[in-house]
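A reminder from the course coordinator: this example appears on the midterm review sheet, so study it carefully.

Given structure:
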């Protein structure tokens, strides 16, 4: 992620609007996070500070974080020293990933004193340190180990900034000097505060010097922050300057403020993490069930293949009956002409010496009937296995595209209804989980709904939509049901293509090209009796071909 010193410098510009604010409230929603409510006349914002590894940052937030009923000890310490304190300055040493909030506070003796809150946003070493006016550490979110630490972070120790590398600061170094230094090492080792993303952008510029000068100019002047989205529309990275190194593979989304961008980026990332964590057990369950079913299917297909070669059993029985008086009792075989062959060649039939010729014939007929019955049973079981595998693929596809905990809750409910997991009821009357379809609008103004899992697909297709509405689904692959609510009205080709694209994007074929999507009026879509959630059959369909390119 590109939370480098340069981006921190940009965020700092926004944070300075809070100078002269008083701290109205302080709470600690989790071990590594602090929230400060800042107020002054005409200004009220929540300041969010995170020292969480991989998500360290400082910015204003619109999110409402939970205030624990029992505040942690570090939060109590913050309240003791900073509650009602006035923010008088915000500092960043060079382009380091360190932000220092300078407060004017009242001591226990009633004296005005200076307190500093230092936010070190450095990778796995992120920390929040409270420092008094004499430069001594009051306490820190993470204390250092006396025996192993190169830098002592303990109450009473003198606070020192993290060791910085000797690099050129782009705010006060010209492009020629930076280029000269980069030729000896690399841009990453030469420039202070620039992430690998920014350094690659300079290296990929047609004119390296012009590219460098543009980025330095963007750093010094006002710019809009940019969120980089991957081909699936998921947040990938962020930056303060335009990025072209990914070509058309990635999209850019511009935000009005750096705080808004950080809020959006990390909220999305943390939501994905929560969803993935919550879905971990059912993902493992479905993969195990799928593997088990694939093995069962393979064994049953082998048995079925054996049953296909059963006709000789019936023929042996018939030939024994036809030559019963010519076969001696106790013989181990019989050589008789094969009346079922055009050439009437002699066939050698193995016999059970303990059985009479008649009983040997009956034995072959019995084996023939047994394999016939087994074949019919195996055909039913293999078809059931195939349907199970199709269903498991649809569930895995739903889990992969789940974007919220409610999506996962619906998938759990679906699996419980199907008997794959136990139903956990927290009360006699469990609250029904509401459907949250993806919703779009066509060029003519028709509403388009997209199901996000099998339960939603069933509800959308069999309950909500009318018989005249148009139904879309990617051909022969797991995916969402998509419905255009057009009634009996004519639908344009643009709307058909838009709905088909949505069906392709919300399917297992989302990364493919030239994807076949079937569509038909709802009245031709039927759910067979006993079919699993999301499973339907349809007729009278047409097909269009589209190439998914991310969400519309």
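Designed residues:
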């Amino acid at each position: 992620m590109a939370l480098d010193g340069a981006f921190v410098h940009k965020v700092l510009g926004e944070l300075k609007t809070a100078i002269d604010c008083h701290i109205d409230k302080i709470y600690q929603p989790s071990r590594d996070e602090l929230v400060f409510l800042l107020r002054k006349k005409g200004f009220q914002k929540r300041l969010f500070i995170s020292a969480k590894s991989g998500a360290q940052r400082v910015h204003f937030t619109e999110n409402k974080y939970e205030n624990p009923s029992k505040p942690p000890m570090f939060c109590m310490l913050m309240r003791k020293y900073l509650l009602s304190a006035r923010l008088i300055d915000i500092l960043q040493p060079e382009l380091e990933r360190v932000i220092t909030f300078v407060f004017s506070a009242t001591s226990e003796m009633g004296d005005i004193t200076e307190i500093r809150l230092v936010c070190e946003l450095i990778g796995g070493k992120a920390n929040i340190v409270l420092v008094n006016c004499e430069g001594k550490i009051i306490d820190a979110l993470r204390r250092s180990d006396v025996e192993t630490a190169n830098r002592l972070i303990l109450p009473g120790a003198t606070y020192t900034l993290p060791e910085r590398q000797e690099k050129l600061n782009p705010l006060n170094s010209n492009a020629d000097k930076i280029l000269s230094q980069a030729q000896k090492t690399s841009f990453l080792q030469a420039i202070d505060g620039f992430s690998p993303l920014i350094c690659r952008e300079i290296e990929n510029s047609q004119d390296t010097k012009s590219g460098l000068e543009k980025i330095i100019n963007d750093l010094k002047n006002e710019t809009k922050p940019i969120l980089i989205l991957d081909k699936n529309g998921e947040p990938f990275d962020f930056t303060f300057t335009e990025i072209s190194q990914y070509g058309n593979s990635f999209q850019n989304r511009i935000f009005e403020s750096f705080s808004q961008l950080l809020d959006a980026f990390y909220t999305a990332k943390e939501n994905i993490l929560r969803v993935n964590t919550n879905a971990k057990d059912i993902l493992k369950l479905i993969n195990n069930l799928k593997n088990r079913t694939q093995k069962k299917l393979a064994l049953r297909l082998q048995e079925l293949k054996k049953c296909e070669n059963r006709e000789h059993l019936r023929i042996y029985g018939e030939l024994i009956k036809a030559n019963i008086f010519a076969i001696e009792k106790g013989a181990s075989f019989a050589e008789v002409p094969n009346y079922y062959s055009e050439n009437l060649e002699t066939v050698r039939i193995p016999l059970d010496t303990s059985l009479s010729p008649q009983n040997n014939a009956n034995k072959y007929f019995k084996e023939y009937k047994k394999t016939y019955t087994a074949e019919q049973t195996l055909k039913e079981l293999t078809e059931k296995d195939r349907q199970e595998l199709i269903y498991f693929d649809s569930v895995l596809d739903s889990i992969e595209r789940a974007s919220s905990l409610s999506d996962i809750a619906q998938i759990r409910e679906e699996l419980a209804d199907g008997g794959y997991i136990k139903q956990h009821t927290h009360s006699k009357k469990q609250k029904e989980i509401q459907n949250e379809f993806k919703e779009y609008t066509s060029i003519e103004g028709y509403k388009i709904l997209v199901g996000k899992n099998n339960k939603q697909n069933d509800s959308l297709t069999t309950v909500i939509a009318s018989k005249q509405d148009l139904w879309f689904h990617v051909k022969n692959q797991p995916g969402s049901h998509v419905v255009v609510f057009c009634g009996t009205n004519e639908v344009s080709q643009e709307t058909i293509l838009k709905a088909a694209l949505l069906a392709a994007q919300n399917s297992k074929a989302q990364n493919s090209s030239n994807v076949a999507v079937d569509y038909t009026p709802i009245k031709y879509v039927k759910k067979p009796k006993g079919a699993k959630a999301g499973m339907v059959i349809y007729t009278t369909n047409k097909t269009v071909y589209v190439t998914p390119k991310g969400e519309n």
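Residues 315 and 342 are 14 Å apart (CA to CA). Residues 426-431 have pLDDT under 50 and may be disordered.
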